[in-house]
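Final report, Chapter 2: Outcomes

The project's central promise was a pipeline that accepts a single protein chain and returns its three-dimensional structure in a standardized token representation, suitable for archiving and comparison. That pipeline is now operational. To close this chapter, we reproduce one record exactly as it appears in the project archive, with the input sequence first and the structure output second.
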Amino acid sequence: MLSLLLSIFAAVYSASAASDSLGWHFVQNGTTGIIALEAIVVSPTLALMFARAGNDPLQINGHPAWGALWNFETNTASPLDVITNSFCASGSFLSNGTMAIENTDTVPDKVGMMGIRIFEPCLDASGTDCTLFEDPDTLHLAEQRWYPASVRIFDGSLFIVGGSHNLTLFYNFDPANTFEFFPPKDGGVPRQSAFLKRSLPSNMFPRVLALPDGKVFIGANNQTVIYDIETNTETPLPDIPNGVRITNPMDGTATLLPLSPPDYIPEVLVCGGSATDDRIPSFNLSSQTPASSQCSRMVLTPEGIARGWEVEHMLEPRMMPEMLLLPNGQVLITNGAATGYAAIASVADPVGESNADNPVLTPSLYTPSARVGQRISNLGMPTTDIPRLYHSSVTLTPMGNIFIAGSNANNLVTNTSVKFPSEFRVEYLNPPYMTVERPILRDVPPQIGFHESFTIGVDLPPTLEASTIQVALMDLGFSSHAFHSSSRLVFMTASLSEDRTTLTVLSPPNNRVYPPGPGFIFVTVDDVTSTGVQVMVGSGASPPVPDQGVKL
């Protein structure tokens, strides 16, 4: 009888706690001072943001700041004195925890669009002692690249893809049809790519995803390929259905869905973009042309590739959507416009200078495990009043909520009577678990190897039965231009001790399933997620590092 009463009490307690949640909700908190068109979480308390060299209001040393650190604890921005212009760049962490951002606009960089910026690991919670290193004379790419993509690969280095040799209003008419690496490989000589050449002219910011066998998936325009870095071979995949294009200036987005043991089978999801014929000159296009609502999904195994893309649709069309992996395995779809294109002032009827119009203000959730046609929903999702169009950034935070900033469909900071002025306000999109009692992680090891068992202390609220437990190892990615470079979620096998205080976890099997470098561990119990704890995955050595762990 006592056990029955306790069970009833626990159920009532759990239902009461769930009803106390505010559900999904937006909160505005702070201003960035720069147009945060790029963002990456660099520590448990800080995100690094970049703008173009312009007229942003945040100042440093007597001039506008082009970069800043956002403090999640104080919701304030601290300016960085950036030497080169990181406008329209990409970046990621290396295996030793160094963060590298590559490419730059032409002014004031002395070496053209080749600059590399280095942000070293920083333990200062406030960011006061954090530094950004630049030396454009000696630290730069082998080829000029504007709007390139990058991803951390199995040896802990960056694989850098495509871009344009020069600034362009819309299409890529002076392409960098090559791959290169940082640190350099091949004697610093870029590799030619037939795929990039045939995917012109709408192929800037290719969507590049590291696969668990060490190869990479690349999507550009409406075409896709698997590239084998070790053999320098490209294997074409089926085109994205219905002529939908997913790369700049027709930005859709893409993500590698969560990888799960024991097989870590890769599936790629691409959403949004445009079915516009890219042979049409940009000045004959319209800001009112509907974007695509299409989502296409493919299993990247021989059998899955033979089946091809599985098509479904978002609840609305989206140009420049953002997709974020969440610790429970769902995918958040947010931001973007229902009509038009990316880029600025290059269509027949821009809205002010925006090539896009009709912002989509309500996020959706994509549930990978659901059936086709039932995966996407905005039930219970809030609606914002801040359009997030071109030059926005979004990232999951270590606290478990979503940081949203930026949006500037103008050449410079514009706060006049245009429909879409420059945006400095920060929003957090809070999941329901942000307003209930959550699991607390203790004694998480600061470094984990591959295929290793380790323990985590955990304090579980009595409201949670622990009927489901998910332990996620996540790279939160580098957000820029509707894509999150190196974003990744690998679920780890875990068991809970009988006294509910300890989790025994098995790390990913090798450095191909999770490329070596920093990550965050989140624990989700009965769909309530803990805050994340930062760890170093692998040896922490500088790239290139040898294979580690065990083969699949």
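Archive annotation: Confidence is low (pLDDT under 50) at residues 1-18, 107-111.
This record, like all others produced under the grant, will remain available to the consortium after the project formally closes.
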